[in-house]
Specification:
Distance between the termini of chain A: 16 Å
Radius of gyration of chain B: 29 Å
Structural class of chain A: alpha/beta
CATH topology of the domain at 3-261 and 439-499 in chain A: Amidase signature (AS) enzymes
Distance between the termini of chain B: 60 Å
Number of helices of chain A: 17
Radius of gyration of chain A: 21 Å
Helix content of chain B: 25-40%
CATH superfamily of the domain at 3-261 and 439-499 in chain A: Amidase signature (AS) domain
Oligomer: heterodimer
CATH architecture of the domain at 3-261 and 439-499 in chain A: Alpha-Beta Complex
Helix content of chain A: 40-55%
Strand order of the largest sheet of chain A: 1-3-2-4-6-5-10-11-9-7-8
Largest sheet of chain B: 10 strands, mixed
Number of domains of chain B: 3
Number of strands of chain B: 17
Shape of chain A: globular
Structural class of chain B: alpha+beta
Strand content of chain B: 15-25%
Shape of chain B: elongated
Order of helices and strands of chain A: HHEHEHEHEHEEHHEHEHHHHEHHEEHH
Chain lengths: 501, 476
């Protein structure tokens, strides 16, 4: 087995047996990055020197008999909106192109404590506003399964890095599908945790009442292992839940829980407008769960259209307010020709913020204005309450909902902006629901389409049901073949073999 | 119509900086006067990803102020974002409480020329302060030390009718925040700042006129002058048939007049919405009970006690209790004397000119001042001598009893001693005596002056005057 095919568990075990060193593993991934980045573009910043010295540190602690945990010595990528002390954190924006934070995000600290090795900072849509990573100010990221297609977004760099074998796992962040959607497009497992489970501190805010960081991995068990490391209560995130019930034995333990006789909900409205391959995937997965002992119940989800509208209104409002601090005065980009304070604001922001960000700032500014607040913000907030109530009702009838992540596989690059705004945003209709209600959602790979493009499905559950979602997804994963790695990787491997017979 | 036919309708918005050692949403120090940008951190500098963490101590301070001002405390309140761009506001929004403030209702009773007036308080909300801009010729510098310092904003109903009432309200408010230790209440350091909303109407009317706002006035004196000047300006406009425009005006301390700052103020849209980074602020009954139990005696309570115990007037009691340090000083000094009224006169007449607007530090010990009141009250020294002794005491705090004795300043109350001096005066000032007899009363003052000169000012003035009059009458 090649190093890049190994799971976290397998690598961890090899490290402890002394079969592999973190230095070897890290070097392998750094080599892959060097070879593949020109065709993938998953990273904004690769921290080669840091990675190697973190790897050496991990090896040292293994030699000294210290064991910081399962993630020790395993190289990974962080989405570039997660603050890393001393490593620039750009948010894929010209505005913060040279911004080097003096602090770590809390999740960064958690990973450091676990001995993780940072390979670099992954590409994303600027300030997480987008769903294809095409809104990065620096470069697009290609889907490793088909370089002509998007990897999804906004955590597209994180997903592409993992899929391409440029990182064992990655952290993404989610506001309305930014973990699950790229995970699905890249054939990966992505967890958007319950709001309040993972600290937001040090993660650039987009919409504070939605944002959550979560793992993007190749397997469900890997995902659970990463969540175990980052689902640590942060006393300095005022919105972090004080009562987050982490299962005994952690999330890794939860993956091994007995399947039992769960009730899986299927929402009829979700099947509308689906690509046949996604529809087929959903039906097949439901049959699988039924055959494994689950009861499948058919449910109805009201307010689906309104929920999508509410999601865009609320996130644009919060996003508008969150983005205004990038004004050229205190840090970040400042237009060189600015003479007055107003110049600094207008020229700096005009120059250094991208179109998608500007659109959402304008939208947020409009709908929060006195004349429109009641009609838009206030109404959207009420719809949010209705969506939470709707989910509560659904979860009285089932343990988890199985749903599509997207209507189809990853679209071609450059096709997102040509669609109408409405069409672009409506493709997010399945992934905004859990974030709108603050619920966890776990995307896992179903398989490949005939064209070889990954299709994912998601499980949504009540608050803090991450353990249950992991258990359900593990059951599916264990009963199915793992997705083939992207062709890109095979070609690389063949190339390698050719070079080193 | 004239100025006399109009009245001002005034509401105040008072910003009071809380005295908590730490900022509202981070651990930075709030100490005043530190070098620029030394009390800052990623949170108050609004670095990406930083989060506010509400400092509960600030909530308790606000509750304490609210309880002292007779407000209702909201069991649940909330923070909102007030969005606007300004270089002293790194987040580009101020965290404040727009929709659901922590305190509502409440009032302050103030003593005015027209008796007691009750000024109602609409609301008190918690918010963070902004930084400070330091302007130079061709550039400006930003000092973020003050960013995130906790404030409460106290908003009154438009119950104030004159500059006198406004100042009385502010003095009382300052007294309350100082007694409760919620704030330093120093206008000169900006820990108490005042916005004035003023409209005018004809006396007897119940509707409101167009309101003009005057922002950030930083002394009681300026508040009074701004109100008076703005009142006159508005009356002049209406008298000429003009209309008042809703606008923000600036009070110019040099000219004593107000000038338009920005007319667009009323159109400013701050796009308030609930801050998604901060949860509900919960204050339970136990917290309120605990804060009430630890509440110090407040000015009104002390005032009532002073009026009862020492027979002080409303005005005297209000002046004494307007500042906690002064009130504490009085309570110490009054233990040392049997003449509380005399003591109050010394404090309010002789010492009050020494007090600054924000400082009422008395540069002598309450024991000494109490002893001085006794010397005066017991007629051991007369009031002139008292003033001289006080002057000496202010230069160097010392025991007035010993000083009076050492310098032989005791009043001459012995009629025999006085009679001989009076006789000599009457004999050697025949012309003045005659003048007085012919009804020219000022002549008596000249004669008394002579008596005082002869006694180095130590004659008991009341006794001496009586004896002087009697002597002149007898010699007629």
């Amino acid at each position: 087995m090649t190093i890049t095919d190994m799971t976290i568990q397998e690598l961890a075990s090899a490290l402890r047996k002394g079969d592999l060193s973190s230095y070897e593993i890290t070097s392998t991934f750094l080599n892959n990055i060097e070879r593949l980045e020109p065709s993938v573009g998953a990273y904004i910043t690769v921290t080669k020197d840091d990675a190697l010295s973190m790897a050496e540190e991990a090896d040292m602690s293994f030699r000294e008999g210290d064991d910081p945990g399962l993630l020790a010595g395993i190289p990974m990528a962080l989405k570039d909106n997660i603050a890393t002390s001393g490593i620039r954190t750009t948010n894929a924006s010209r505005m913060l192109e040279n911004f080097v934070p003096a602090y770590d995000a809390y999740v960064t600290t958690c990973l450091r404590k676990n001995g993780a090795v940072f390979l670099g900072k992954a590409n994303m849509d600027e300030f997480s506003m987008g769903d294809s990573t095409e809104a990065s100010a620096f470069h697009v990221t290609h889907n490793p399964y088909d370089a002509s297609r998007v990897p999804g977004g906004s955590s597209g760099g994180s997903a592409a890095a993992v899929a391409a074998g440029e990182a064992v796992y990655a952290l993404g962040t989610d506001t309305g599908g930014s973990i699950c959607q790229p995970a699905a497009f890249c054939g990966l497992v992505g967890m958007r945790p319950t709001y309040g489970l993972v600290s937001r501190r040090g993660i650039t805010a987009y919409a504070s009442s939605f944002d959550q960081a979560g793992p993007i991995t190749r397997t469900v068990r890997d995902n659970a292992a990463v969540l175990d490391a980052i689902a640590v209560r942060d006393p300095k995130d005022g919105m972090a839940s004080r009562f987050a019930p982490v299962p005994d034995g952690g999330y890794v333990g939860a993956t091994e829980n007995a399947f039992g006789n769960p009730v899986i909900g299927y929402v009829e409205e979700f099947s509308k407008g689906l690509n046949p391959s996604v529809r087929g995937a959903l039906e097949h997965a439901l049959q699988f769960y039924e055959s494994t002992g689950a009861r499948v119940v058919s449910l109805s989800f009201p307010h689906l259209e309104e929920a999508l509208a509410a999601y865009y209104l609320l996130t644009s409002a919060e996003g508008y307010s969150a983005i205004n601090r990038y004004d050229g005065v205190h840090y970040g980009y400042r237009a060189a020709d600015a003479e007055t304070v107003d110049d600094i604001y207008m020229l700096s922001r005009s120059d250094a913020l991208g179109l998608e960000v500007k659109c959402r700032v304008l939208l947020g500014s409009y709908l929060l204005s006195k004349e429109h607040y009641d009609a838009y913000y206030e109404k959207a907030a009420r719809i949010r309450t209705l969506v939470i109530q709707a989910f509560n009702t659904l979860f009285n009838a089932c343990d988890a909902i199985l749903a599509p992540v997207t209507t189809g596989p990853a679209p071609l690059l450059g096709t997102r902006n040509s669609e109408s705004l409405n069409g672009q945003y409506s493709s997010d209709r399945f992934t905004v629901l859990a974030p709108l209600a603050g619920l966890p959602a776990l995307a896992f790979p179903y398989g490949l389409t005939q064209e070889g493009l990954p299709i994912g499905l998601q499980l949504m559950g009540p608050r803090f049901s991450e353990g249950r979602l992991y258990m359900l997804a593990t059951a599916y994963e264990d009963a199915h073949e793992r997705l083939p790695r992207p062709r890109l990787l095979h070609e690389l491997r063949n190339g390698n073999n050719h070079e080193c017979p | 119509m004239s100025v006399l036919d109009y009245e001002s309708v005034i509401g105040l918005e008072v910003h009071v900086e809380l005295k908590t050692p730490q900022k509202l949403f981070c651990d930075c120090s709030t100490t005043f006067g530190a070098p620029p940008n030394t009390q800052v951190c990623p949170v108050c500098l609004a670095m990406p990803g930083t989060l506010p963490l509400l400092n509960r101590e600030c909530v308790e301070y606000a509750v304490r102020a609210g309880l002292a001002l007779h407000c209702d405390i909201a069991p649940s309140s909330r923070f909102d974002r007030k969005n606007y761009f300004y270089p002293d506001l790194p987040k580009a929004y101020q965290v404040t409480q727009n929709f659901a403030p922590i305190c509502t209702g409440g009032y302050v009773d103030v003593a005015t020329e027209n008796g007691m007036r009750r000024i109602r308080i609409t609301r008190i909300h918690l918010e963070e302060d902004a930084g400070k801009l330091i302007h130079h010729d061709d550039h400006s510098l930003v000092d973020c030390n003050r960013c995130g310092v906790p404030l409460i904003e106290i908003v009154t109903e438009p119950d104030i009718r004159s500059s006198e009432e406004a100042v009385a309200f502010l003095r009382k408010l300052r007294a309350v925040v100082r007694y409760t230790d919620v704030s330093d209440g120093k206008m000169n350091e900006g820990s108490l700042r005042c916005d004035v909303n003023l409209s005018i109407r004809k006396k007897g009317e119940t509707t409101f006129g167009q309101r003009v706002e005057m922002k950030n006035i930083n002394s009681f004196n300026f508040v009074a002058r701004a109100i008076e000047s703005e009142f006159k300006r508005q009356v002049a406009i209406l008298e000429e048939g003009g209309t008042i425009i809703q606008e923000t005006r600036r009070f110019d301390e040099k000219t004593g007049e107000t000038s338009a700052l920005r007319k667009k103020e009323s159109a400013a849209d701050y796009r308030y919405f609930p801050d998604p980074d901060i949860g509900e602020v919960l204050v339970n009954k136990e917290t309120i009970a605990r804060i009430l139990a630890s509440m110090p005696r407040l000015p009104d309570e002390r005032k009532a006690m002073y009026k009862d115990t020492y027979e002080l007037s409303d005005y005297e009691a209000e002046r004494l209790t307007a500042d906690k340090d002064l009130s504490d000083f009085f309570e110490e000094a009054v233990k040392e004397t049997s003449y509380p009224k005399t003591l109050v006169n010394l404090i309010l007449t002789d010492l009050s000119p020494l007090f600054g607007e924000d400082e009422t530090e008395v540069p002598l010990s309450p024991i000494s001042l109490g002893a001085l009141a006794d010397l005066l009250g017991k007629d051991i020294i007369n009031s002139n001598t008292g003033r001289k002794v006080l002057k000496v005491m202010l230069e160097e705090d010392q025991d007035p009893v010993a000083y009076v004795e050492e310098n032989n300043l005791a009043q001459i109350n012995d009629p025999e001693v006085l009679q001989s001096i009076i006789d000599a005066t009457v004999n050697s000032n025949a012309r003045a005596v005659n003048d007085y007899r012919r009804g020219r009363t000022p002549a008596l003052r000249a004669l008394m002056g002579n008596v005082m000169r002869e006694t180095q000012g130590r004659a008991n003035p009341i006794l001496a005057e009586e004896m002087l009059k009697a002597t002149i009458a007898k010699n007629a």
